[in-house]
Amino acid sequence: MTAPALAQADFDTQAKFAILMDHDSGTVIFQKDADLPMEPASMAKLMTVAVVFNEIRNGRLRMTDQFFVSEHAWRTGGATSGGSTMFADLNSKIPVEDLVRSVIIQSGNDAAIVLAEGIAGSEGSFAAMMNELAEEIGLTDSHFTNPTGLPDPNMYVTARDLADLARYLIREFPDYYHYFSEPEMEWNGIKQPNRNSLVELGIGVDGLKTGHTEAAGYGSVISTAEGGRRLVAVLHGLTSMAQRAEEGRKLITWGARAFERVSAYPEGAIVAYASVYGGTSPSVGLVGEGEVALYLPRGSRKCLNAQVNYTGPLMPPVMEGDKIAELRVFCDEQLVQTAPLYAAETVEEGDIVRKATDALKQLALGWM
């Protein structure tokens, strides 16, 4: 079990899996089994949307393009399937923008399949695109097999990867983010509300996606900019829609209100150094993803200490921007926050003299 990132005397959740993350820095404020594999359910559709937006950005797709509703899409994801649906008509053509809105607002399985077939020819080929983009984003513990999130034993995600995927969507596609907060959508004369009920509660939640299967339970990926910063939360493994909404509301509200922001290191500032074996430099500076800001329980500044964790010594070449380490902040010996650290510069492989010197150093002193 992953240790929670905040002293649990102040907060806990009934979700089996959860994470609360600062959008800008990737700093983890709360986590609960955030790195264990779980069934994504319809939250997998966030990756479907990411592929669509990426295709549009790269000029291979337009929102005005129209895609054909095949019999497979109609039977597997349509009205007769018993799942979330757009109620798309068989053999009709639907603009990409309406399909995207349905996937986000209605969680339409038929809309997701139509997009997959229209872009890649089949769900399988589209899944390959999903996994390729997931690798580019850095979702190292997830694997996608279809665009809908319908159950498949070979499809899995982690709460952390879903949070990072949400951050990618918010950061890279701000012009499309408004779709996630639309209250409802009507198609074929059938009006459906946004399945993320938190959008309508007036607590600042403006996205992103819910999911449910019998085996996995109820989950959601949510975000808010309340409290002066944007937070992203993921919860999964809950027992009902009502519990999903309440636990999501509690987590995101607690994150927005119970913390104060402490600026620790400005953007580009060296947080620590990591040892490099046999490189042109014996160490490499570590920096945060932009500014390293701490979000701490109010009144807890005096209890702080920190550690930098990495597996070393590092072997060259170490490339600028490589994720190297993790900053861990403690309060009274309890982990309260984590933040990723990256190489500030490139360290190339050193000459034979440097390697010999480092070999002697390793034998005599060991490495931290």
TrEMBL record:
Catalytic activity: Preferential cleavage: (Ac)2-L-Lys-D-Ala-|-D-Ala. Also transpeptidation of peptidyl-alanyl moieties that are N-acyl substituents of D-alanine
Gene3D superfamilies named in the record: D-Ala-D-Ala carboxypeptidase, C-terminal domain, DD-peptidase/beta-lactamase superfamily
PANTHER family referenced in this protein's UniProt entry, alphabetically: D-ALANYL-D-ALANINE CARBOXYPEPTIDASE, TRAFFICKING PROTEIN PARTICLE COMPLEX SUBUNIT 12
MF annotations from Gene Ontology: carboxypeptidase activity
Pathways per UniProt: Cell wall biogenesis; peptidoglycan biosynthesis
InterPro entries associated with the record: Beta-lactam/transpept-like, Peniciliin-bd_prot_C_sf, Peptidase_S11, Peptidase_S11_C, Peptidase_S11_C_sf, Peptidase_S11_N
Keywords: Carboxypeptidase, Cell shape, Cell wall biogenesis/degradation, Hydrolase, Peptidoglycan synthesis, Protease, Signal
Uppermost EC category: hydrolase
Pfam families (UniProt xref): PBP5_C, Peptidase_S11
EC number per UniProt: 3.4.16.4
Family from the record: Belongs to the peptidase S11 family.
Domain Peptidase S11 D-Ala-D-Ala carboxypeptidase A C-terminal: 259-349
Organism, scientific name: Devosia oryziradicis
Function of the protein: Removes C-terminal D-alanyl residues from sugar-peptide cell wall precursors.
Classification via SMART domains: PBP5_C
Name of the protein in its database record: serine-type D-Ala-D-Ala carboxypeptidase
